[in-house]
Structure formats: structure tokens, C-alpha cells
Amino acid sequence: MLKGKNAVITGGSRGIGKAIALEFAKNGADIAIIATRESKASDETLKELESFGVRARMYYCDIRDAEQVESAVQEIIADFGTIDILVNNAGITKDNLLPSLGIMDIDNVIDVNLKGCMFVTRSFIRNFVRHRKGSIINISSVVGLMGNKGQTNYAASKAGIVGFTKSVAKEYGRKNIRCNAIAPGYITTDMTAALSETQTEEIKSEIPMGKLGSPEDVARLALFLGSEMSSYITGEVIKVDGGMYV
Ligand code: NAI
To answer: Whose CA is closest to atom 31 on ligand 1?
Structure first.
């Protein structure tokens, strides 16, 4: 479905980003991953991707830093040529009740989740405009749509992604560049591994399907949005949440 396409995935070294990278590679796309040096299992991820017969490379970059982003993006374009799909997936949480949130906890979450997504998209947009095509997929969260106690910083960053997604869709629709967001519910990754068993049971009780989702559940929607199957869909926010938001 993605044969001959080049895809960039931020935070693609593990969790949801890795599942998206694997799904894209399985469908024939060459993959560039942007991740921090601290992220685990990078070499292993590259080997897994290459086992599908595609090209895979890792670019270390902190997406909070616009200059680092710009040079990583130039390096990716020099290595891969045209980029067809960008997935802004990298994200972090620093949860606490509002009075206990440190300034750094607010800054870091907004800087990685929202500003990082904007920096990466901004640096790739000329590539998309030049080729008059492209699909940008931003990973938001249901928490950005419904709010969550103890996650004011995170929810604000993910709500910001929704406004950014819709604006990019309007600004670049005429250039055949689509921009959509995915809002996952609770998905089993390192991010949710920090939850206690009691918290997990409480969460499950609020999900109509009674279970957490898998990274692959999100990856299959990303494949749809990245491919021509969704060629007339832009500016949408699609939930993958087992009905949590219903
Ligand atoms: P994870 O913690 O397993 O992976 C996060 C990735 O982001 C890592 O590869 C890491 O290297 C990268 N990253 C973090 N800070 C970075 C920085 N400054 N520069 C470059 N890369 C950076 O997280 P997970 O669970 O796979 O989440 C992926 C995305 O999905 C995030 O945006 C998260 O907010 C979102 N999400 C996750 C949900 C879940 O239940 N796991 C639910 C809803 C949304």
C-alpha cells in the first residue's frame, strides 16, 4: 500500500511510533525515525524494520530545539529525497495536580508535544509544497478532547495539536497536503506502564470495550491516513479509544 513512499516518524523507536513504523514498513515504505539518543532499542528497531526489505534510518534529535530539527530534516531529505508521510508521534507526560506542576513540567510537555510537532512540520512543509502532495498525521489524545484530572499540561498540549492540525489542513489543502490527527485512548506502552493496577482497573471500567488498546490499533489507522485510501480526508481528528469518549 505504501510501496515507493518515504515516511518520517518522530518517536518511532518504541511504543506507538514503533508500531506505526513497522506497519508502514510491512506495507513497503522506507522509514526515517527521529528520536532522542536516550530512547531504548533503536538498533533493534532498525533491524526489525529492515527485515521487511525496506530502508530504515535513525536520526537523533531533540524536537524541542528548532535548529536541531531543521538540520535533522535537511539530513533526512538529503538521504531519502521526497518525503510522502510525516507522523508527529513523539510525546511525553509529566502528570500532577495543577498547583504541584513545576514550571519545567509545564514547559517540557508543551515544548515536546506541541512545539516539537510544530517545529518538525514547519521544517518539512517546503518539501511537501514542492512535491504538491503529502500526508501529515499528528498524534493527539482523547485527553486533549475531554480533559483529565492531573494532566492539565498534557491535555493542553494535545488540544493544541487539534487546532494546529485543522489550521495546517486549511493552509495546505489546495497544495494536496492533508493533515489529520489521531486521538488514542489508553494504549499499552511504556507511557501507560507507569499506571498502578488499581488505576488500570479504574480506567478499564470507563472504557465501553473494557480493555486498553494496543499500539497496533493506532498503527492501522495511521496506515489508512498515510495511504491513498484516505485521499479526500483532511482536518479530521479520529479517536482510537474503545469507545472511551462516547
Ligand atoms: P513512549 O514513551 O513509549 O514513546 C515516546 C517516544 O517519543 C520515544 O520514542 C521518545 O524517544 C520520543 N521522544 C520523547 N521526547 C522527545 C524529544 N524531545 N525529541 C524527540 N523524540 C522524543 O510513548 P507512547 O505511549 O508510544 O506515545 C506516543 C504518542 O502517543 C505520544 O505523543 C503520546 O502522547 C500519545 N498517546 C499515547 C497514549 C498511550 O496510552 N500510550 C494515549 C494517547 C496518546
So the answer is: 91
Question: Which amino acid residue places its CA nearest to atom 2 of ligand 1?
Answer: 191
In terms of pTM, does the model score above 0.90? yes
pLDDT in tens, 63-113: 999 999 999 999 999 999 999 999 999 999 999 999 999 999 999 999 999
Is 245 a domain residue? Answer: no
Expressed in angstroms and rounded, the spacing between residue 91 Cα and the centre of ligand 1 is 4
d(CA 167, CA 169): 5
pLDDT in tens, 162-216: 999 999 999 999 999 999 999 999 999 988 888 889 989 999 999 999 999 999 9
111 found inside a domain? yes
Domain of 106 in residue numbering reads as 6-240
- Beta partners for 237? 181
Q: What is the CATH number of the domain that holds 95?
A: 3.40.50.720
180: nearest Cα among 193, 190, 167: 167
Is position 1 within any domain?
no
- Determine the residue of 18, 22, 36 to mutate for testing ligand 1's pocket, defined as the one with the most ligand atoms within 8 A of the Cβ atom: 36
Instruction: Look at the chain and report how many structural domains it folds into.
Output: 1
- Determine how many CB atoms are found less than 10 A away from the CB of residue 42: 19
